[in-house]
Amino acid sequence: GTPQKYDPTFKGPIYDRGCTDIICCVLLVIAIVGYVVVGVVAWTHGDPRKVIYPTDSRGQFCGQQGTPNEYVSWLTPVAHRRPGITRETITLGCCTPRLRDRQLALPRQLLICVSKCPDRYQTYLSAYGSRTPSELEYYRHFCVPEFKNLQKAPIEVLKDKECPAMIIPSTPLARRCFPAIRAKKGVIMVGNETTYDDGHGRRRNVTELLEGAKKANVVLETRQLAMKIFEDYTVSWYWIIIGLVIAMVASFIFIVLLRFLAGIMVWVMIVMVILVLGYGIFHCYMEYAKLKGEAGSDVSLKDLGFQTDLRVYLHLRQTWLAFMIILCIMEVVIILLLVFLRKRILIAIALIKEASRAVGHIMMSLLFPLCTFFLLCLCIAYWASTAVFLSTSNEAVYKVFNESACQFSGQTCKPETFNTSNVTKLCPDAQCLFAFYGGETAYHKYLIILQFFNVFMFFWLANFVIALGQVTLAGAFASYYWAFKKPDDMPAFPLFSAFGRALRYHTGSLAFGSLILAIVQVIRVTLEYLDHRLKAADNKFAKFLLSCLKCCFWCLEKFIKFLNRNAYIMIAVYGTNFCTSARNAFFLLMRNIIRVAVLDKVTDFLFFLGKLLIVGSVGILAFFFFTQRIKLVQDTAPPLNYYWVPILTVIVGSYLIAHGFFSVYGMCVDTLFLCFLEDLERNDGSAEKPYFMSPDLKKLLKKTNKGQPDA
């Protein structure tokens, strides 16, 4: 590209500008209106209760207000398969749930709502033959609501499928009843029995229920783990908040100190990170040495397998050895990078000092990420709620089921008119039962397209919000750089001025850039979905091709993000459209590729070290506190099931807080760097074309303004 020429009228971000990329602005408005319409339609047809509450064989919800029965249970298996059934759900066993779009596999199982799950083994014949009326009355809780005649012959009751042939002990989970399977000394048991009566005079082994309940047991273990984690959060949430506040204060203090002591802080930060990693290596070695000779500590991670109690891994020497190796590699890599880039660090420090001054004059910029975060939360909330309503907007579909041969078997029916139809006359044992959620209207046929549109709009709007934040910060910091006398020549409210210009003139350009990025991201999501679907396939060529496509589009997404970021800076400064800004930014960077590769990446590396220092310091403090290793506050730390729960929460939260603060700094450095390159091309330091850069940058680059004192 051609270097920028001197323009005597250019004094920073152009105020006399016009609207750009109007067509994309109109498309965005139309898309948002369509998105609102899709949301309204989804909220009209959808019913989130389908996700939360189970349904019986009639499609009625269990556990709803006004419904006394809270759990879903099953009735007697009948030797007839339900049409369209797959093996993708939990099969066999008492009280298994009807998952949303599929019914249970193997024998047809009728689902009913019950007030509680069964707690004993019992067959209907044994309950009917019992001399205790309470036994039959208890059993009646697991019959259809219409069953009232306790004197009816058992063979007729089972033939009419009014009661189950048997019940077994079950455990409630998410308003559904699962078989209470457990292992005792290697023996699989349900309740306290290893066999059960199937209600037809045959004794069966409980292992026949095991295959169908495997997934249920995984869910139960996961639920137990989740409950312990929830308990830890309930007793430590205020300490977690204190830890996050400490991270916020540390990030703010760090940025304030950078303004005055950038050079010292950068070197101190580098040394502190090396020391933190060094302590981590020392701690891992001490734990590794302490476990030497202890029983069970030499078990390998592969032999141990996955354990829900993660504390088990901390009693293995191999775990601490792995941690120590990882930290050693990180330590060596950081030291080598510092050795080879030591001369460039001084230039990076100068940019950070300049950014510190810019942020110091525009302190509101540190709070601006909260606005972006709030808008992103709105996008996520709207997308998630719309997705839930779309996925639950199918209608209940009822099918004809029967035991004997019937020409109407599997056909759609309506419960309201079924008893008066010809089906009951031709097939006396036929029933009209709830099969699954679906629909045959135009709306239901295009549900997948609406879901795709929902995902696409989420990416588009999320990228637009991020772009709006970037162009706003870029406009504010550019007004600082191009002020010859800083801060006297800066506008009164640079951040609000830049935000107003972005919305008024460049909504279309932001929509254009975010649209391109959203298309690439949707393609990546589609490829991930296809990869998930092809995991069970044996087509190696398809898997290889898919992996190549995923890699290519990942690289493309990274490049577009980099190009968009610099294009938004040019938009904020010059007010040109997206394509022109992207082209100018790209050529400007290519003309200074060495400076871009070194200065920009060194600065990013230093910011990463700053995040690592804050997160590491707060994480170590949280570790010592929650493990009760600080004697002064040893009694204050709450008792926990897993002390890693609040520690990881504090670490992740600290990183997000530090990232929010440093993202402002990163945008400031990128903006000043692009403006700095423009300044070098436009001006030569003469009286007619003076440099706008700060005295420190001019001194570092050995540049001067001839005939004029430095601002």
From TrEMBL:
Membrane topology classification: Multi-pass membrane protein
Gene Ontology cellular-component annotations: mitochondrial outer membrane; plasma membrane
Catalytic activity: ethanolamine(out) + n H(+)(in) = ethanolamine(in) + n H(+)(out); choline(out) + n H(+)(in) = choline(in) + n H(+)(out)
Pfam family, one: Choline_transpo
Keywords: Antiport, Cell membrane, Glycoprotein, Membrane, Mitochondrion, Mitochondrion outer membrane, Phosphoprotein, Transmembrane, Transmembrane helix, Transport
GO molecular function: antiporter activity
Annotated compartments: Cell membrane; Mitochondrion outer membrane
Transmembrane segments annotated in the record for this chain: 21-43, 237-257, 264-282, 320-341, 362-384, 457-482, 503-523, 567-590, 602-626, 642-662
Predominant subcellular localization, coarse grouping: membrane
Domain of life: Eukaryota
Job description of the protein: Choline transporter.
Family recorded in the similarity comment: Belongs to the CTL (choline transporter-like) family.
Record-given protein name: Choline transporter-like protein
